[in-house]
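Quick entry, no commentary yet.
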Amino acid sequence: MNSAPARHVLILGGTTEARRLAEELAGDPALRVTSSLAGRVAAPRLPVGQVRIGGFGGTEGMARWLHEHQVDALIDATHPFADTISSHAARAAADVHVPLLALRRPGWVPGPGDRWHSAGSLAEAARLLPDLGERIFLTTGRMGLATFAHLTRQWFLVRSVDAPEPPVPPRMEVILDRGPFTLEGEAELLRRHRIEVLVTKDSGAHATAPKLTAARAAALPVVIIHRPPAPQGIPVAETPSEAATWLRVTLA
């Protein structure tokens, strides 16, 4: 008797959770897993298994790929701020009737002693900075630095995986680095550069959370940029294990 063909799962990845999910599913002979990376990082950390790199060409291109490659389930495990690809995934999955799950790590929650200032966007964060300080640790990544380019009085320490491209703030130093980061390292970074304000997106990752603890210990204000909501009507899992359970129930 011939066994049933493996079910094809597409993971929209690039995050730690996406890599862990691909690793968890890799040993299941009933599944064939493809991880898709956007290709914005020069040397990405590759997950186990089959990998494709590059965009799909919008909603229609993704829907076509799902159909042509006979995808049985789609898991959006992209960065919480990758709202464009998440919107494309929601529409494409609906168009070709492929079940979709969003894998989103929980956001950060302020604790006692935190001096958080909420911002709904990079532009709103930039508007807050003149009242908060002049030496800024900007950890929002290399994309979107143009939003801060008009701030000529502030000095920026920018940390990103790859070097940013102009336009950028005129007074800026760049650190090329990738997490996880330690509390000791983050505290030393704040002291060495005499940082007065931390700006970060609410990525929710444990690997980058030590900067928040270090800022709290130094009594520094932190501008937190809130993440966009997941597309409406899409089920959400918070961990790779929850996503794996959803997948097996859905494909049963």
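second:
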Amino acid sequence: MISVLIATQNDEEGLAGTLAALVSAAVEGVVREVIVCDAGSDDGTELVADHAGCVFLANARWVDGVQLARSAWLLFLEPGARLLPDWIEPVVTHVVSRGGAATFTRAEEARLTFLQRLRARRPLEEGLLMPKADFVSSNCDAEAFRGKGGLRRLGARIVPSSPQN
């Protein structure tokens, strides 16, 4: 149903945490595959991806992962981001209703202060769920697509990766 794409570089711990949150969805058949697009890690990132059964693409960009993705829906996540356990049902409902591109709701423990909201944020810190066809037709990368705004907000919650990840 969904192909998950994670872009990483030297973040084996963050990747492991993100992958752990996807296990139940993989067991339920919601997550079909996880593709790790790596920008040249020299730590254990590849080993973590391999042990988790991910497709690992060395020296790859988002578009490389999208080309390999077998699902009609894509979920872009940063390494270190954690989807909270209640995420599966809202995502499946959104996908089945063909709701278009959407982002996750920041978990209460990860809410931003007023000053943090004023600062520039990372485009994918709250994830991005979208139809593969929309990504292909947009002619841009995931960060640029997310930066366009106007996305629906899922009821599913996420704890974004910390800024140093």
